[in-house]
Write a structure and sequence with these properties.
Elements lengths: L9 E8 L5 H17 L4 E9 L8 H6 L1 E2 L11 E7 L10 H6 L3 H7 L3 E15 L15 E8 L5 H16 L7 E9 L4 E7 L2 H4 L4 H4 L2 H10 L4 E2 L5 E7 L4
Parallel strand pairs: 3-9
Antiparallel strand pairs: 1-4, 1-5, 2-4, 2-10, 5-7, 6-8, 6-9, 6-10, 7-8
Helix pairs in contact: 5-8
């Protein structure tokens, strides 16, 4: 199930909202100035920027209805945009750490960052991944796919083994067979809220619509998911369904 020679095992993830006033200017700045500045850092391998879709756009409502959303005071609630940077390992983002990197930008860039509302950052590393049937034909290599579904969550430590087993033995095993799936990355947190993340990658929104097909057709897998998903406590807005706005899909 695993893929050898994985070289982009770490992600720096930023979730945030934007006001209407200044939104277009901020997005141009992200693509023209901020992403290139981060990409100059040694070890940063790729970048991808996403706009989240409204929940009603997702066919994963069954999953969304079964999960819990945390209400921990102080956890930012941004979700409209998701910015990903990939690197060989999490320590690529450690010197400087994301907050210090942003604080050290020129004043004009810091003013653009200040437009963000509810911004939240995590650095995550891969616990493992599987590749789906679309991996061989995916032309963008390591770069995040045109359509993603991402969850950021925690759960009681007593559930660690069962949830680890479920992801590997059931959910990720099913997605490895699912037509339309490029890959699935199971993530653990190095810094930021929530110990866990999951990143599903698809070539299009249309391909994502059937992402639970193999799981739902198997009564054992479906029953296991029904038992497991309510145990996950998700960050505000998670899971996120989003389409890539930079680089534009070819």
């Amino acid at each position: 199930m695993t893929t050898p020679n994985i070289v982009d095992r770490a992600l720096w993830i930023t979730w945030y909202d934007l006001p209407e006033d200044g939104r277009d200017a901020h997005l141009r700045w992200v693509h023209d100035r901020y992403i290139p500045a981060v990409m100059e850092r040694p070890g940063v391998l790729w970048a991808a920027h996403y706009a989240s879709l409204k929940k009603e756009s997702s066919t994963s409502a069954r999953v969304i209805e079964r999960k819990k959303t945390i209400s921990i005071s102080g956890v930012p609630t941004g979700r409209q945009y998701i910015l990903l940077f990939g690197a060989a390992d999490a320590h690529v983002f450690a010197d400087p750490v994301p907050g210090a990197f942003n604080a050290g930008l020129p004043e004009a860039d810091r003013k653009m960052l200040a437009l963000r509302v509810g911004a939240r950052m995590n650095v995550m590393t891969e616990a493992g991944r599987v590749e789906g049937p679309e991996a061989k034909s995916y032309a963008d290599g390591m770069t995040g796919a045109p359509c993603i579904q991402m969850g950021n969550f925690d759960h009681a430590w007593q559930e660690d083994e069962d949830i680890m087993a479920w992801y590997v033995q059931s959910r990720m095993a099913a997605l490895a067979q699912q037509p339309g799936c490029i890959r699935v990355r199971k993530l653990v947190t190095v810094s930021g809220w929530g110990r866990h993340g999951i990143l599903y990658e698809y070539p299009s929104l249309e391909a994502q619509k059937n992402y639970l097909q193999h799981e739902n057709k198997d009564p054992g897998r479906k029953a296991w998911a029904d038992r497991t998903l309510p145990k996950l406590e998700h960050a505000p807005g998670s899971s996120y369904l989003a389409c890539r706005i930079w680089p534009e899909p070819g």
